[in-house]
Amino acid sequence: MIPCVIDINVDMGEGIGNESELIPFISSCNIACGGHAGDVDTMRNITRLAKKHRVKIGAHPSFPDKVNFGRIHMEMSCAALFKSVKGQVDDLVFILKEEHGALHHIKPHGALYNLAAVDEKVANVIVEVMKTIMLPVKLYVPYKSVIEKIATAQNIPIVYEAFADRNYNDDLTLVSRKEIAASIHNEDHLFEHIFHMISKQKVKTITGKTIGIKAQTFCIHGDNPNAVNLIKNLEVRLKNHGIQIR
């Protein structure tokens, strides 16, 4: 038994339509706010659903690219990227105010998330957006990333994130979605993957190496074909090991 508490987060409002099935088993959600997916209606609906289940709400901004679902790097000036990301977050904050909800965190999506992990300019843009929000909002970041260092240096509260349903390279970047082994779909494999990160603070990479990692929140992608079963199974098995999700 390893008594502890973790957060499980899922991206929502991305057109998959399984939010009501997933949300009873998670503790925080990342709401797409118009960049790669989502609109006023989906943001409002997910906000209401999250409030009903007492799930923490986060903004999930991305490159403004619905055609490629925000998973392709877009060449943008820092000013243009700031305006886009800030606008997406502001749109969700406006809806949260109308629905009497609270913004808990921000987690960039897809290519924006991956680039901010290694690129100082992009990471700085995200941090500058965080600094404009007059709320006690946290930033979900990968361990040992560029954005972690920049955010910490500017006193932005961070939460380390790891991916329960994605495989890792030796440098702690995610295996490209172009690779067959990018995602984890098997319930046993997923549990072993996340349990090792929780209990040992280590992750087994795609090459078989074991690398140190830290995380307080773990993501399962809502567009994983087996997402609902993965999360249901994971909740039971974590609870059996004394690990609570909240």
TrEMBL record:
Signal peptide boundaries: none
EC number: 3.5.2.9
GO BP, one annotated term: carbohydrate metabolic process
InterPro entries, A to Z: Glyco_hydro/deAcase_b/a-brl, LamB/YcsF/PxpA-like
MF GO annotations: 5-oxoprolinase (ATP-hydrolyzing) activity
Keyword Hydrolase: yes
Top-rank taxon, per record: Bacteria
Pfam families: LamB_YcsF
Keywords: Hydrolase
Name the UniProt record assigns to this protein: 5-oxoprolinase subunit PxpA
